[in-house]
Specification:
Elements lengths: L6 H12 L9 H13 L3 H10 L14 H4 L13 E3 L8 H4 L11 H12 L13 H14 L6 E3 L9 E4 L2 E4 H17 L4 H13 L3 H8 L9 H16 L8 E2 L1 H29 L2
Parallel strand pairs: 1-2, 3-5
Antiparallel strand pairs: 3-4
Helix pairs in contact: 2-7, 2-9, 2-12, 6-7, 7-12, 8-12
The structure holds adenine and zinc ion (2 copies).
The site of adenine has 9 residues, from loops.
Length: 289
């Protein structure tokens, strides 16, 4: 397919230049890792539903489309506020009724509300009620992406710094922002330093921990109390606590982040990627039971 410049793509291009930090959730690789962990853990019926809902060009690989929701933010403008939650500065708590709203105050328009919404849409799969009312392919892609985002600690961050987007830092020699450090930089440095830039090796290492060292906890990660199908508020609360205890901790404007920060935070990123993957699978398995 050719690539055409019209006024819209040109405008998007300059917007990208102007606001580089506001564009992505976990980077493409973070979402890819989460969805690769997920797809291995699907039940037979969930795997069949996912296969049916994915477009043919995805070749039954969910991970190829787990960043789709980020790429359509400019087309589906209404969706850009569904990727995060802004909580009150310095409180380090999340409360659905207080915090899950968009910038106009519309309730439920946050990453937790969106996960519940797309879960409910997907629950109509296979019922005669409504295959036409919703686009269940889009619902699957939103759910798969947003389950990742809600596990990025700074996607449940403070309001005034937009989840660390407005905190400039240095990542080793380069300029970055705290939010981007958690979306991408820690993951990229890990790939580069420990896995020869081969993402599959990173994923394999996480999968080994999931079936090995973490296997006891994994049973708890997967569960969702009170017979609920999705538990996004639990994950959002964990994220803001993790943001306070690890992401924001010891960071100010222009702090230089190097090995001390990288090596102490990497286990947290590993854990959140694994939890995101395991919980997306658990949720899809409950949806498509
Ligand atoms: N925009 C405003 N707050 C944000 C957050 N926590 N994460 C990503 N984008 C945001
Ligand atoms: Zn996102
Ligand atoms: Zn992000």
């Amino acid at each position: 397919m050719g690539f055409y410049f019209n006024s819209h793509t040109l405008a998007s291009f300059f917007l990208l230049l102007a606001f580089p930090a506001f564009t992505y959730g976990w980077g493409i690789v973070g979402h890819q890792i989460i969805c690769q962990i997920t797809q291995d853990r699907l039940s037979e019926s969930a795997a069949a539903a996912v296969k049916e809902l994915l477009p043919a060009y995805a070749k039954n690989d969910l991970s190829t489309l787990c960043s789709w929701a980020d790429t359509i933010k400019f087309r589906y403008h209404w969706s850009s506020e569904l990727h995060y939650i802004d909580t009150p500065d310095d409180l380090c708590t999340y409360n659905y009724n207080r915090d899950c709203k968009d910038e106009d105050g519309v309730k439920g328009r946050c990453v937790s509300g969106a996960i519940t919404n797309y879960t409910n849409q997907l629950l109509t799969y296979g019922s005669s009620v409504d295959e036409s009312q919703y686009n269940l392919t889009e619902a699957l892609l939103f759910l798969s992406h947003l389950m990742g985002d809600i596990h990025q600690p700074l996607h449940v961050g403070f309001t005034s710094d937009r989840g660390g987007n407005t905190i400039p830092v240095r990542w080793f020699r380069r300029k970055s922002e705290l939010h981007k450090v958690w979306d991408k930089d820690i993951i990229e440095t890990t790939e580069d330093r420990f896995y020869d830039d081969v993402v599959e090796e990173f994923v394999d290492a996480l999968k080994q921990n999931i079936t090995g060292e973490w296997s006891d906890q994994v049973v708890k990660w997967e569960k969702c109390s009170n017979n609920k199908v999705a538990c996004p508020d639990v994950y959002a609360s964990e994220s803001i606590q993790t943001a306070c205890n690890w992401a924001y901790k010891d960071v100010e404007n222009n702090t230089v982040l190097e090995d001390d920060y990288f090596l102490s935070r990497l286990p947290i990123v590993n854990l959140r990627l694994a939890e995101g993957g395991v919980r997306l699978a658990g949720t899809l398995n409950r949806i498509f039971k």
